[in-house]
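--- STAGE predict ---
source: upstream dedup step, 1 unique chain passed
mode: sequence only
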Amino acid sequence: MSLLQDATNRSIISSEECLRLFIGNPGFFKNVEDIQKRIGGLVSTGDDNVTTLPNFDGSTNDYYTCAEVADYEVGSKAEIMSSLKEKMREGELREIYGDYFGFEKVDELAIDDVRSKLVEKLGENKVKNIESRANDFYKSYTSGINVADGASYITADMCKRMLRARGAYNSDVAKAFDILQGETAYSWEDKRDAFKLIYDKTNLVTTKYTAYGFRDHTTNGNKVSSLSVPYYNKFALFPIFECLATGKLKNIYNKMKNEGVDNLLMTSAVKVGLQGNVKFNGETIDKPFNKYTQRLAALRR
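--- STAGE serialize ---
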C-alpha cells in the first residue's frame, strides 16, 4: 500500500514540475480536466525550425503574428432531427430495460410497455431521469456542433515560412506555390495537385502541431502588463491560398491579410494563454483582431 501511495505522490509532483517548467503555473489552463493529458505533448519530440533564415522579403523570421476567433457552433438542420428526440428516448429506455430484464425481444416490445416495466422496477422519478439524459443527448446535436474544433488557419506566406524553416521548401514545393500564387492561369486540376503537395508537406504527421512557451503580454503592439503569458497551443493546421478561398472563407482570409495575421487560432486550439478572441457571425468577423506574437522556434510539428 505504501508503495502505491509513494508512486502516486511522485506522479503528482512530476506532473506539477513538468507543467511549471514548460508553461508556468497550471492555473493558467482554461480547464482543469486538460492538465494531465497535455503533459505528454509538452515534452514530446518535434522538428526544430531554423529561424536564422531571413524571410523572402528580407524581414527576420523569429516571430509570427497570432489572433484568436471563438469556436463556431452550428446546430444540425437535417430532416431526421425532428424524430431524433423520440428515437433517443426510446433507445435509452430499451437499453436500461435490457440491462435489467435481458435484451431478447426488447425491440419487439411497445415503448409504453417498456416504460411501464421500468417504472415498476425503478420508480417514476428514476425513469424520468433516464428520459432527461436522453434529451441531453438530443440537445447536443441541436444546440450546436463545433465545426472547427481545434483548428488553426495560416496564410500562404506563413505556410511558406514554416516549410522553409523546417527545410521542406524544395523545388517541387516552390513550383506548387508558383501555381497557387503566380499570375499565370493554371487549371483547377493543377491547383488541386499543387495544394495537395503543400498540404502533405505541412501536415503529413501522426500528431497535431503544438506551440508552447512564454510571450510578452501585448495586444496589437501595445504593452498590456509586465507579465509573461504562458501559452500552449495544439491544433490541426490548414493553409489558405487566395485562389482557393471563396465565400465566407475569403472574407476571413482577406481580413487576416489586411490586419497582418499569420496564424488564426480557434479558441479550442488554445489550451493555455487565451487572449481576446473575436467572434465569427456566420458571414465574417466584424471586429478587429486582438493580435500578439509568438516565437517560430517554439512552433513544433
